[in-house]
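Sat 14:20. Reprocessing the chain from the morning session after the first attempt stalled halfway. Input below, unchanged.
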Amino acid sequence: MKTIYLDQKKIERKWYIVDAEGVTLGRLATKVATILRGKHKPYFTPHQELGDYVVVINAGKFHVSGNKMNDKIYYRHTGYPGGLRQANLTKMLETRPEYPVEHAVRGMLPKNRLGRKLFGNLKVYAGAEHPHAAQKPEPLTIE
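Finished this time. Tokens:
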């Protein structure tokens, strides 16, 4: 077998826009992570950045099943002793509505340099306004 390397300059990258209003968080994150990695393209290579750009709007209006609005907890640590902080999904949507979508997508990307680079191709906005109209993003529907 021969390893395939595609020229990064010749790869055509598209911009997609996703409206998260009423969409289940996990299904949204799965579809977005697939597009960021480039798995939807016929020339997918796991060790190269071949994916497209994704803009997610209305990030705070997604849907979750069950009692996850109160039971799902996000943890962070300040770096000081006793500095473990936690917030449930309801509080997180009030303070940082983009974070749950970013957190879900980041968890579905590779945990290495490539994953960090791919995460830079994701743009998440709490409202319907975004500054990427010049890129003419194509709408992407998620069931």
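Residues 25-37 form the longest helix (13 residues).
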